[in-house]
Amino acid sequence: MPKETRSFAVLGLGGFGSTVALELARFGNRVIGADLDERKVSRMVPHLHSAIILDATDEAAMREAGIDRYDVALVAIGRDIKASILATMNLRLLGVGTIWSKASDRTHHRILSKLGADRVILPEQEMGRHSAQMLHNPAVQDYVSLGNGFSVVNIIVPEKLDGEAVSALAIGSENDIRLLG
Asked: Model-level pTM?
């Protein structure tokens, strides 16, 4: 059964926003990208369902652009904290079902959370933690934090364990470790 696609509005087409928008579109989702910068919008036109010049601080302009008809919105406005806050507030007022917002620091994070963002992202801190985990342990190829202290980790199996039966490894006997295959 094919995966159901959703529609996404990405407000702010800088490095972070444009990367998210392009990936969502690559997955087959309907994506509108919006930014005040005409050059950023122009670069996205060939790749997205729609790309528009839009002031996300203007609730009426967002409604006119049909942002309220999208399932999920991402506020990826980076440098202008006031614009980020107003865009998040406008999305909530428009009734967008799910709102993710990018924050620049902890205070910004708290404000966006209080405004009703469903998830607030601190990309530099999150990527910094991710990089530190992988640098700390060279056997870790990649990992995903699941929250509450749980992670899925992709590790390089040492040569000495090559060919060993999984049952002989005593995985989980001392730690709460589970093998996924």
From this structure: 0.79
Residue 107 tokens read as 């205070």
Question: Per residue in 146-174, is it b (16+ CB within 10 Å) or e — as a string?
Answer: eeeeeeebeeeeeeeeeeeeeeeeeeeee
Query: Residue type at 19?
Result: T
- Tell me how far apart the 2 most distant CA atoms of the chain are, in Å: 64
Q: For 123-170, how does the pLDDT look when each residue is reduced to its tens digit (9 = 90+)?
A: 888 888 878 878 888 778 887 777 777 778 787 777 877 777 776 666
Scanning the structure block, which residue is given the tokens 């107003």? 86
Residue 134 to residue 160: CA distance in whole angstroms: 22
**Residue 114, class by beta-carbon neighbours within 10 Å (0-12 exposed, 13-18 middle, 19+ buried)?**
exposed
- Residue identified by tokens 């490095």 is 15
**What tokens appear for 50 in the block?**
């729609």
Question: How many residues in total does the chain contain?
Answer: 181
Give the integer Cα–Cα distance in Å for 89 and 99. 10
* CA distances in angstroms from 127 to 85, 101, 123, 134, listed in the order given: 23, 16, 6, 11
| 171 token code pair | 């995985």
